Write the structure tokens for this entry.
Amino acid sequence: MAEIRLRDIHKRFGRFQLFRGFSLGCPDHAYLCLLGPSGCGKTTLMRIIAGLAAPDAGDVLIGGRRVNDLLPAIRNVGLAFQNYALYPHLSVAGNLAFPLRAPVRRAHYNEADIRAAVKRIAALLKIDSLLDRHVNQLSGGQQQRVALGRALIHDPQVLLLDEPVTHLDARLRYEMRAEIKLLHDRIGTTTIHVTHDQREALAMGDLIAVMREGELEQIGTPLKLYDTPATAFVAGFVGDPPMSLLHARLATDGSHPALHIGASSLPLAAELSAQARTAKSPDVLLGLRPQQVTLVEPERGDVVAAVYSHEMVGREQQLLVSMAADTIRCRMKQPIQVVAGTKVGLNLSLVGAKLFDAISGKSLADLH
Amino acid sequence: MPRVEFHNVSKSYPGGIRAVIDLGLTVEDGELLCVLGPSGCGKSSTLRMLAGLESITSGDLVLDGARINDLPAQARDMAMVFENYALYPHLRVFDNIAMPLVARRVQRGEIQKRVHEVAETLHITDQLMKRPRHLSGGERQRVALGRAIVRTPKMFLMDEPLGHLEAYLRVELRAEIRRLHERLGATTFYITHDQEEAAAISDRIAVMHQGRIQQIGSLLDLLDRPANRFVAEFIGSLPINLLAATANEGEGSLRVGPTMLPLSPAQATRLRAARSHTGLTFGIRPEDVALADQEHAAALPGRVAVLEPQGDNTVVIADTPVGRVSAVIPSCSVPAHGERIRLHLALDHAHIFAADGSNLLSGVDRKG
């Protein structure tokens, strides 16, 4: 069991500088999801923790100990990849036992110890009846259990999971998500789970670290990220659906603080106007959840927009409307027939809305 | 008028594998029809028979009233979009999109004009001079879509076009596909294993399993009146809860574990007519399960095992005497981990399946 800490990590690939001073902490026993789009550096970070890639500068600490110079095998880390990476020529038992037969550990385990460890881990992952099978006779979900078992058999201090459920079909993915979480509740191993799927991160993480282009955008609990996104990127990435972001300008109408969107002016109530005072620049992004947007006749709306597209999400129709370069999503109580390009009015409820600096993307609430 | 009819179409492969069995299906003029099913269900074979890439073992494939079983692929005038983009890596985006026009010896001025129109529609004008390897997955699929729509084929065939993309890009592109469809009004045959994607973009969904169409309808039809247990399990963004149940005819009630659910006279009559009161399965969607008051008689006791935040709502997964049950609860009133709760199973939102999987009763028969 151990805390994981990355301090001031730098990493360059050829001419491409991915990390320039990246720091992140994962407390002991926590389940941390590293969330971000492809290319954000989340997998590289995991490889750096595992020792499969070396940072150009910076410290990797596991349980307070600097492990930069330790070989992967002696960092005491358990690893499971999205493609399982099981040994096809070995049985389930052979795959599970593999880490215990590795040169660095061989001295510590005799065959009886190995049998006992395989039995224990197989029971934990409910694969006891599969031990003699070949891995290519297993379903995807069973293979993933074997991969998890292999990652955990040597009681690692830290468990690293790279997209562990992405490849499974929907129902199995849902079941495996709960299984992994229950497993974590029981064993308490500090876990870092890499994913691009915000739903998965919200569902599974005690903490979520959102990454983008080698930078940490925000770290916090799922509800913290959802309710108070630190940046416009987090607001537009997290949530189902995420927030719509709208270019706007801070202004005053007479003596009242207001928000100009296109040709419209909306008064700012107390909460947002306090934030508006901290703004460095009048150019902002307004973050709205779909429930804060209501479709009305064009002449009755706070703003005018045009229908872009629409889709059914569960039982409800969601409309995508465009205003200049922005797209806004709203939920319809009743499905309607729409034609792309139709003019519509939108009423925007600013209660609970978020403001972000248009250049830096930072939440004005955080500057406050 | 491009209208496609499959009449009793079957496909068998050497070795006796029957991929498609007695398929009857019509894609109406201008419709976007999605065939949805797990891998191996026969949807790809169906698409390949329609494209002319695969021979038809028996039955008739009819396009605009003419049998086309033996018409070569290139004479069918259908444009295809594939999961893996199938772009020419050595050609720039412009030339990739222009390819179908060049092949048909369209004039250069006309090609310029059409490619630029398409690029604008798909927001890839800035990418026209790049090569595919410099594009993200989402951009590549936009190029592949551009290549399909640059000419005006009789119809479009789409083979899991969003399958390779990460979740957030899928959401972005499915709205684009729906918009294109409404703009072009072209008959489109689309296959996917992702029910959310199918729901978002299609006019109708045909659910396929083991070579046979299980049900055709809108998403709401499939959610509210699933033809059988397979459809109920496959549809829905969270998997439906399926619990063993027994009908108790004398008392006009249904037993789910320790819980007795009273049946209305009409429901009791339906179950009696089905003559199967054992081996039943009670199906209810997590969205339709609520927390019950402690004194509520017809409620299922459980203990909170896992909490999965979604944002405004949280999925509560509880261990109950009949297995794990999921419920979607507003995040502000979620019980604690480990807490004992009671779940209200509303019969008017439930489905009852016979041992053979057929649907005996859907609660939404409240409509009629």
Q: What stands out?
A: The interface with chain A takes residues 38-39, 136-137, 166-168, 171, 174-176, 178-179, 182-183, 193-196, 199-201, 219-220, 223, 233, 237-239, 287, 305-306, 308-311, 315, 317, 324, 331 of chain B (CB under 8 Å).
